[in-house]
Here is the input.
Amino acid sequence: MIELQDITKVYRTGSQVLEALRSVSLTIARGEFISIMGPSGSGKSTLMNIVGCLDTPTAGEYVLDGDNVAGLTFDQLAAVRNRKIGFVFQNFNLLPYATAWENIELPMLFDGKNGRRRRERVTELLNAVGLYEWRGHRPSELSGGQQQRIALARALANDPPILLADEPTGNLDSKSGEEIMAILTELWREGRTIVMVTHNDHIAAHSERTIRLFDGQVMA
Amino acid sequence: MNPTLPRFFWSEYRKRRKKAALITFALFWGTLSILLLMAFGQGMSAQFRVAFSGLGDTLIMVYGGQTSLEFEGLPKGRQVSLYPEDIDFLKERIPEILRIVPESYSFLQVSANGKEINRTVHGTTAEFALMRTQVPRMGGRFLNADDDAAGRKVAFIGWKVAADLFGAEDPIGKPVVINRIPFTVVGVLQKKIQDSMYNGPDADQIYLPFYAYNQIDNRRRINQIHIQPHAAAQSKLIEARVRTILGKKYRFNPDDRYATSFWNTIENAKEGMAIFKGIEIFLGIIGALTLLIGAVGVTNLMYAVAKERTKEIGIKLAIGARRQVIVQQFFLETLFVFAKGTFWGFVTAFNIVHLIRLAPINYDSFGIEAYLLRPVFSWQIFAAYMAILGVLVFLSGIFPALRASRSNPIESLRYE
Here is the structure.
């Protein structure tokens, strides 16, 4: 369960103050698939970063599975990102020098999983995204769709209950985009919570609920 | 630390090793330069000691002279000569003396093997060999006590004398005629470097037993006395006591600097060593500054690497890497680059030093190469260098690593 209560995020650069989020309250139930939409600068990514424990709110309360995230240390937040949350980014964010296999293996290495478990899981995930044959290739040798599938497999490495996808189809052609959405929908059906940022109504239509942000506030 | 992480770091490092090549090379070059600088400094210093010991080991030479001060009613300008009996006279009165030998010499005609040359011929006793580094070539010997006791007519010759008279032949057992008296060669001086001398290098000299020498040169007085103290620190004391004792015997003022003169090689060596120690310190300072510049370079490069890898750090933090993991990775990479650079620097320096040492020294025309061709690889210096560089690399590795680990994941992910 994700519970955001009066979340405010303020950025200060010198004398300038930018209020990216203003008293955002939001509850996302376990197993829900929601889309966050809004124009550029509306606070979508800031909200996503806070939900994903990449950033902390200036004010308000964020409770994740009953734990107040505000009280967690840097390393405790890292552990949450590692085990509870999987990230899928618009620009994939794969390590360029690592192979597909190594990219998927990385979160498990950070979690201290042993070699056998890692091998089994990476094999399983590569087969699930249909890229086992590409396991030894680096990101630069893969198409955008393939890279995003590897990124999805990496996000699932530690079997997190929550998947955060920031414009997951933004850099893909429509066919690859549909493939990714099909995988995300399948993952949701398996019981995962999916939170997705998108500009695209057609993509947002895959979700159960859409939250619209404008000027740092939830519109509906 | 998760034991699989170092393997992962290694795998990542291997993929980036070309980018790390510049830092590795900087460390390699720094190590090579410093170790070679220090090896040459040490080598020059060591060769100076060797060259100086070519004359002798902790040696004080005493010469006669002419008085310059009136003494007990006697006028100045009197000749002071040394005699064979002064040897026992001094030895009995100065317990600090370890060895004492007389030496007389004359420039004489020497012939052998149908050849005729003129060389300085010396008369002395067996202990002269120990004091004046007279090491015989294999198969021969220096003069011994029995030669004097038995009145043997034997000769020990320098290697140049041997070459001039006998060419490539072995002179041992062959006769040489000195001042029309035949002597048998019993030994040839082994080649050595010698930067201090009187009457020319030992390579050109001929040594006879003192008793036999007196048969070809019947002057009663001797040219000089060689004294070796028990300890080098006693040299000044011995010098003063010799002046006092001989002053009393030959009736001159002990403060008269011209009545007797001294060549105190111990004091000369101290001055020489101070110069070479100065050179070593100078080279050490250059080395330390080079090291510092290298460390600053490595720090800059590590910061640049950390900057270049900002996005990678962001990705790792986003997928759950703890700070410790980022620090460990950066630090292990620095450590590995350090080990690789210094290892190859050490191997190269070590081999260059040993290759240079294989070059032959020309003992016949002793020159600058005798100092330069014998660099000394010092393990102590290497250990000190590794300790200092280790600290510098630790510092230059830990700060970029800490900075990288404190990155804001969001800002790092946005970094292009």
